[in-house]
Amino acid sequence: MPSQTKPSIVFAHGLWADGSCFNKLIPTLQAEGHEVFASQHGLNSLESDVACVNFTLNHVPGPIVLVGHSYGGTLITKAGTHDRVAALVYIAALAPDDEETSQQHLEQFPATPIFDHIDVADGRIWLKPSAVEHFAGDLPEAEQQLVLATGAVPVVDLFNQHVPGTAWKTKPSWFVVANNDHTVNPDRQRASAKRMGANTHDIDSSHVPMLSHPDFVLDVIRAAAKATQDE
C-alpha cells in the first residue's frame, strides 16, 4: 500500500489523449509510494472536465501534486485551487490567466503546424494521420499509432469556454517546456512558466515528453512532490 507520508499524484490529460498517456510515469510513482490517479475526462466541456478532475482530487488523500499535460494545464489551473492541492506540474501545457480562454492564451503566439492537420466532424476536432508527427514525432511508429488510436476527441468550441480559477497564482509550480513542440508553441510555454514563476525544465522533445522522455518528467514530478514534504 502507498505510504500516507508521500503526496498523492493526480494527472490531467489534454486533447487527443486519455489517462494512458501517463502510463510510463504511473507505475514508477506507485512503486515509490504515491497514490496515483489519472482523471478520465471526456473533453465535452471545460466545466465538466474541471469537475472530473475535482472528483479525482476528492478521491485521494492530500497533499496532492496535480499534473497537467497540454489542455490539462488549463484544467489544473482551474481545479488546482482545491484546498488539498499543494503543487502544480505543467507538461508542455496551457496555463491561462483568469480572464483568458485557452484559445486566447494560445493566440498570443504564432500557431503551430498541427492545426493544419485536423478535421472537424460530428462537432468534434479529429487529428488526421498526418498530424502525429507534429504531436508525437519523437516516438516510435507503433507508439505514434497507439496515441492516435486512444486519444479522446474534443468538442469544437472547447478552447473558447471559460471557467474561473488561476491556481498558479497561489500554488508552487513546475513546468516542463518541450523545445521541439509543434502543438503548443514552445515560446508560449516559456512565457507561461515565466509569468507563473515556475521551476522550469527544458527538454528537446515533441509535445509528449512524458512518453518520449519519461525519466526527465519523473524527476520534475519528484521535485514537486519533495517540495510538498519539505514545507
TrEMBL record:
Q: Which InterPro entries match?
A: AB_hydrolase_1, AB_hydrolase_fold, Sec-Metab_Biosynth_Hydrolase
Pfam families, sorted:
Abhydrolase_6
* Positions of the AB hydrolase-1 domain: 9-219
GO MF annotation: an example: hydrolase activity
Keyword terms, alphabetized: Hydrolase
The answer to whether UniProt assigns keyword Hydrolase to this entry is yes
Domain of life of the native organism: Bacteria
Work out whether the entry's keyword set contains Metal-binding. no
What is this protein's name?
Answer: Alpha/beta hydrolase
Native source species? Rugosimonospora acidiphila
